Amino acid sequence: MPLVIVAIGVALLLLLMIRFKMNGFIALVLVALAVGLMQGMPLDKVIVSIKNGVGGTLGSLALIMGFGAMLGKMLADCGGAQRIATTLIDKFGKQHIQWAVVLTGFTVGFALFYEVGFVLMLPLVFTIAASARIPLLYVGVPMAAALSVTHGFLPPHPGPTAIATIFHADMGKTLLFGTILAIPTVILAGPVYARFLKGIDKPIPEGLHNPKTFTEEEMPGFGVSVWTSLVPVILMAMRAVAEMVLPKGHAFLPVAEFFGDPVMATLIAVLIALFTFGLNRGRSMDQINETLTSSIKIIAMMLLIIGGGGAFKQVLVDSGMDKYIASIMHESNMSPLFMAWSIAAVLRIALGSATVAAITAGGIAAPLIATTGVSPELMVIAVGSGSVIFSHVNDPGFWLFKEYFNLTIGETIRSWSVLETIISVCGLIGCLLLGMVV
Fold first, then answer.
1. CA dihedral angle for residue 167, residue 169, residue 171, residue 173, rounded to 10 degrees
2. Domain ranges of the chain
């Protein structure tokens, strides 16, 4: 019966979001309330559970996402992202242009949200395609693959970061494992798959995008742009390596854990960026504060949706659902990684939102970690992989790709939807293989 209630809750969530177009945050809170009542929880305890779920999920996550958004916006507004992209492309040359785009997307993707990175890199993709006289998708697909993989696999992006919080996974190890799996995944979904799409050759859309192009003097240097944007990654990776190689009680461990904490790492990056991307570029504090304020507007609703997913998760836990699922899994031979991936994949195809799918699947799959002893870091990547599978018409990202690359719906499915599915399946296979040795 408890699983039937969960199924009813998920079906209700789909109905509210797909049929009635309800806001994701409101829908998640209503479903959490409904599931709690159907599970027989007292009214007052349901409300407390929802509050605890939202607060517990957004505690450190709001800080990480807030600082991450600030860093990404400063990188974009000062011309740093454009500097990274143009320099890499110049160094690689036209013959290896796909790899330049992949590396650019991967580098930019660490610091920027998917939609921001996508729109930011489009002018470069258009310029490359026109000057090299190659199809748009030949360079567009590698760019989208790199951005999508960082969005689905790697902290500090919202989905992986929120799932890591739910699973109590180590952020540094999640980043390390995610990077290991991301490299072959990007290669297959990007440059390799793009070679099968040369037959789709559409003109560059006219008047669709008119971004600011920075002059040489306006942009910061390549080294400072890359170094500043990767400060959180460097610090979190340092912590993960220190925890793996240093013995307990080592004097350097507390230092690595302090500076490698995701909140501290992103805060340090923002403080550095205030100088490298702001004051050092001749910007006033008023201009910098305007950038910081606008960056928060981008993630406000995203934070609420993630909080709503946390409420749903907490109700499932407080109603005893975690113990029920754990007892079932104790007798099951199915891989917990595959089960977590499957839950996220079904929700992604049904809901469209990768973030909502990931957070909801995280709440349902959380009991599997304690029961099976599976690596919580690999579970984060498994759920993240499932949450990006087969983007289609209910996903805003589908229409973003379609319109900017001037495609039909069929061509978008053949390119974008398949690309996302390749990423998802490669992520699952990588998790299963890595799970044999971790």
1. -140
2. 2-434
